Amino acid sequence: xxxxxxxxxxPAAGTNDVSLEEPKKMTREDWRKKKELEEQRKLGNAxxxxxxxxxxxxxxxxxxISSVPWYIDPSKRPTLKHQRPQPEKQKQYNSSGDxxxxxxxxxxxxxxxxxxxxxxCGALTHxxxxxxxxPRKVGAKYTGMNIAPDxxxxxxxxxxxxxxxxxxxxYNPEEHMKIVEEYSKxxxxxxxxxxxxxxxxxxxxxxxxxxxxxxxxxxxxxxSQTERDHxxxxxxxxxxxxxxxxxxxxxxxxRRITVRNLRxxxxxxxxxxxxxxxxxxxxxxxxxxRENPYANTGKNPDEVGYAGDNFVRYTGDTISMAQTxxxxxxxxxxxxEVHLQADxxxxxxxxxxxxxxxxxxxxxxxxxxxxxxGGQEHLDxxxxxxxxxxxxxxxxxxxxxxxxxxxxxxxxxxxYEEDVKxxxxxxxxxxxxxxxxxxxxxCHSFVKYSYCTGEAGKEIANTEASLMxxxxxEEEHMTKPKTLMEVGCFPFxxxxxxxxxxxxxxxxxxxxxxxxRLYY
Length: 520
Prior knowledge:
Elements: H1 2-13, H2 28-43, H3 63-66, H4 140-143, H5 161-164, H6 174-204, H7 206-210, H8 225-230, H9 235-239, E1 249-251, E2 258-260, H10 318-333, H11 344-373, H12 376-379, H13 384-387, E3 396-397, E4 403-405, E5 432-434, E6 437-439, H14 454-477, H15 484-519
Antiparallel strand pairs: 1-2, 3-4, 5-6
């Protein structure tokens, strides 16, 4: 019995596991059908196999590549998943923006010694033999005082081929602003020193003598020292003019003329205006971008600096020329010997006369229709701005011209429904407040989805309130103890009477409501 139980339990335990049975041997007929199907798939007469993701499997892939080993997938489903990289075996690399944090200080300091920390300083990130602090006479392990903060543990970064060779990884562009500020301060100091020297020379009188050299015949020298002093701010630039070697530019320090070739390099290139790959196509051979790169951004073509090369086709006389060409084709179809390229002057005169005749014909047709049917007064109506230049806004002004009434701030609408009256109530929920509870003002009910009882509900609520107020006073003046019958009899009888009154009035209200519905 025991052996039978074990043998019966083994298959049950292995039902959830992968079956390790070898594939069955195919018959000759099945093998022939399989080969014929493969040939049909290669010729394109039969549909290709589809894997579990719905992708077609190329029928020209060899069998030793496409077949799945029986110990991986015993179901023998067609797939190429076993040939693709497995995610669990791929190495995970850090992104190019990750880098070690420099100058990080941990400000969180422990107040007591922690187990496993340094016995000397109390930090948890190193041991006593690796401690860089001065050895204490009594360590932090025994004193529990002056525990040093933990050092920042740098992350273990692992980059791929490009990340290892990225020279700018970890560079902070804000550090360059320090250099810019330093050079700006040096430039400001130079200008201040130069202005101070000019003031000193002007005060001593040396500058006037130097700035007024004259020729022997009495005329002042045209290229005087004054012009050179005005250009003294550019002396530093002239010193390094010989070192300038920029492609496409020739620099002359005397004439200060820059000869530019090709386009101005400060302009944005066409292919950099919109980096979306689905935007306008840029042809690198002709350097043309015919479509508008800002078409899908919602910008107006009149507001952008560049709207594509096709805008040239719709500017100037392009549209009028297209209309003239269309007129030439229509006139040629009707028998007129005109051509835009062969005789443009004749076509232009003919087109002008055609437009004049067309306008005269439209004017005569309009006049004849108005004479026959009338309606000239509707065409001479004032513009809509004058017709609708009125408003229903009521504003009151004082004798001094100030607004007294009419410009009150509009009340903001609530996101909840307003003035909703349910269950025959005449007031909204929240119109009554008493003892920290909201209710209906029409019946003094504190239940939101209750039916309205009208004045009867108010009387009942007031009666109950008065009873609740009188009950403590009676208990204070009570001298003789009452029996249980005497205590419970009065409230019970009053409640029964009030309940009967409420029930009868409620039934009358329902009956009257049904009668009105039947009549209307």
